[in-house]
Amino acid sequence: MTLYTTLRNPAYMPIPTVDAEAVAATIRSERAKRGWSQQQLAVKADVSRRTIVAAENCEYGINDWTYGLIAKALDVSLPWLLGREE
Questions:
Q1: Phi-psi region for residue 58, left (φ > 0), alpha (ψ -120 to 50) or beta?
Q2: Residue 13 pLDDT
Q3: What are the C-alpha distances in Å from 20 to residues 2, 8, 24?
Q4: What is the pTM of this model?
Q5: Residue 81 CA from chain centroid, whole number
Q6: Domains in the chain and their CATH numbers?
């Protein structure tokens, strides 16, 4: 991949990594604050309960789109959920 390719196509730009364990803890704590089960959060986020379990236990990579759905369901910003803003 050349610099030209990277500049012409933003899809080639590297995405900053997140601390999955910190994000998982945030999801668990925000869900608990609301008194929601994993199933309730899954329904509100329009994802499977298995996805919520995986996100809360760092079982496999969750992409930013899915984190975005979870953030929206929790009524928090995606950058905040990912620990990218104070």
A1: left
A2: 45
A3: 30, 30, 6
A4: 0.77
A5: 7
A6: 17-81 (1.10.260.40)
Say how far apart CA 27 and CA 80 lie, in whole Å: 11
pLDDT over 50 (residue 27) = yes
Rounded distance between C-alpha atoms, residue 13 and residue 34, angstroms = 36
Residues in contact with 80: Cβ distance below 8 Å, sequence separation at least 6, in sequence order: 71
Three state DSSP letters for the chain: CCHHHHHHCHHHCCCCCCCHHHHHHHHHHHHHHHCCCHHHHHHHHCCCHHHHHHHHHCCCCCCHHHHHHHHHHHCCCHHHHCCCCC
